[in-house]
Every structure is written in C-alpha cells, then in structure tokens.
Amino acid sequence: TVYEGILSDLHVVAIKKPKMVVRREIDEFINEVAILSQINHRNVVKLYGCCLETEVPLLVYEFISNGTLYDHLHVQGPRSLSWDDRLRIATETAKSLAHLHSTALVPIIHRDVKPANILLDDTLTAKVADFGASRYIPLDRSGLTTNVQGTLGYLDPMYMHTWRLTEKSDVYSFGVMLIELMTRKKPFTYMAPEGNGLVAHFAILFAGGNLSEILDPQLLSEGGDRIDEIAAIAVACVKLRGEERPTMRQVELRLEVAQSPKEFEADGDIAANSQLACGPGLTSRQYSMEEEYVLSARYPR
C-alpha cells in the first residue's frame, strides 16, 4: 500500500508499506532499497530513505502526484493521452532502462516493465517505479537463472521457458508496452478472433501491412508518418529469440531518431556507418559504444 505523507519540514512524500509481514515482501523491500540507492536518473523515481523502526519496513519516495501511465492510457472514451505524449513517455522510459542496463555501476534488470509501473508527474514526465523484483547482473555474466517474476502479458516468453533472465527480457516487456501505447489494448486480456494474443496479432498485422485494423483510432489521426517506424521498433523488441532483439540503448536512439528525423538526417557521417539490427521493417543501424554515447549525450538524463 502506498500512502501520501508529509515530513516534519512539510515536504510531501510517498510512503510504501507491506500489507503484511511476509518474508518475500520484506526481501523485495530490501532489494528495492539496494537497487534504488544505486540509481540517479531523472526518469527513475527517487528513494529518499527507509524506516526500520516499525513492525514492517517503510520506504519513502518522492511524491509523484499524477498517477500511472496505465491510468492515463486506459480511460473511458475515445481519446486518451496524445500521441506525442505517449511517444515522449516511451522514449523517457527507454532512456531509464538503457541507463539501468548499460550505465549503472552494475547492470540492473527491472523485470516488471509495464504501464502500471510508470508514474507520471504534473508535466507527464515518466518516472519508472517498483524495483522490488529487479536484479543485478554481474559484469562477467550475460544473464542469470532465477525463478520467473513479472506480470503475465508482459513476460518474456524465453525467460518463462528457460528461467534465464537477461537484459533482453526488459526489452521484450518494453516492446509489449509500446504496442499497448499504440493500440490502447491490454496485453493480459486481449484475444484476437483467431485466438492470438495482442503481441502475436500486432506482429501479424504489421507484417501484412494491415496495422490500421488494431491501432488506436486517435493514433491514426495524430501519428503521421512515424507510426510504421514506431511499430517496427515494437515488433523488433518482441521477437521470440532474445538475441534478435535490440538493446535498450539502441531502442532509445531509434525512438529519438523517429521524433527528430530532420536533425538526424544531417548526421549522415554517423548514420551512414551505423546499423541497428532489429529485423525486417526497421531501419538498419548498428552502434558502437562510442557512437551510442556521441548521439545520446545530446539528450539530458
């Protein structure tokens, strides 16, 4: 349960409290403190501290007043968040995940990326939250074997099958979230007439050039010529084999390109030597680490 609280200096905070004294919940709280104490990023919710003087530990966060991305996306009526806001929020989320995977001292996998875990502040800036299930990945390992945790509909099928958690598991979950942003359909309940879930149906329609059948009508009126590019990124992220998915850094940069095409067209010297291997339908770019930082350094974190 999360409460709104006020400190003695009148600073408003959010206070997270376990519903019961259960070892797993306590372990998740300890894990969240360990993870968030290592992260300083504008798109990750800030942990101010914890209180251990109570029956169960309390976590104290910055107060984010505007609910979750899920709340804003799945509203009654034909119109929801604008396409520009959805795309910006997706890009901010990609930035934070790329930071966790490749910039943090020890790589961190969130393990439960979904709209309900993306908080929005008063300016609709994304704040990634809920790190109770997150895991460190040692620098000398490409993944780890662990019990499956996450939310059905967003879970990487390879992780579910093999129990092997990698950074590409977050990439898959992010791809599902991107599809949800484009369709306003919930991946844990959607079922196509043919029996396919949201991810499979979206990929089939994209491959057949029939994406308009599933897209949010609001997107068709606001998305312009960026729809196919964003859809291609989403389809690349949800490929069955993890090694065929892009990294979150590549996704971040591709989303930036989609939003600023004129600026990046001028960077022909960099773009000409770059290729992102994200599968059919996606512009091909492959970044060395040096090139990634040259491009991403323009955008504040």
Any key phrases for this structure?
Kinase-like_dom_sf; four-stranded antiparallel beta sheet; alpha+beta; Transferase(Phosphotransferase), domain 1; Phosphorylase Kinase, domain 1; two-stranded antiparallel sheet; 10 strands; disordered C terminus
Overview of the molecule:
This protein is α+β, with helices and mostly antiparallel strands and 301 residues long. It is built from 12 helices and 10 strands. The protein has helices spanning 23-36, 69-73, 83-102, 157-162, 167-183, 198-207, 217-222, 227-237, 248-259, 261-265, 268-271, 289-296, and strands at residues 2-6, 12-16, 47-51, 58-62, 108-109, 118-120, 126-128, 135-136, 144-145, 164-165. It has a 4-stranded antiparallel β-sheet, with helices on one face. Strands 5-8 form a two-stranded antiparallel sheet. Helix 3 (83-102) runs antiparallel to helix 5 and helix 3 runs antiparallel to helix 9 (248-259). The radius of gyration is 19 Å and the shape is globular.
Per CATH, the class of the largest domain reads Mainly Alpha
End-to-end separation in angstroms reads 29 Å
- How confident overall, as mean pLDDT? 85
What overall form do the CA principal axes indicate?
Answer: globular
- Structural class label: alpha+beta
CATH architecture title of the largest domain: Orthogonal Bundle
Unreliable segments of 5+ consecutive residues: 263-290, 292-301
* Quaternary class: single chain
Main sheet record:
4 strands, antiparallel
Tell me the β content.
5-15%
CATH homologous superfamily (4th level) name of the largest domain: Transferase(Phosphotransferase) domain 1
Q: What's the tally of helices?
A: 12
CATH topology of the largest domain: Transferase(Phosphotransferase), domain 1
Keywords: ATP-binding, Nucleotide-binding
Domain Protein kinase: 1-265
InterPro entries: Kinase-like_dom_sf (IPR011009), Prot_kinase_dom (IPR000719), Ser-Thr/Tyr_kinase_cat_dom (IPR001245), Ser/Thr_kinase_AS (IPR008271), WAK-like (IPR045274)
Protein name: Protein kinase domain-containing protein
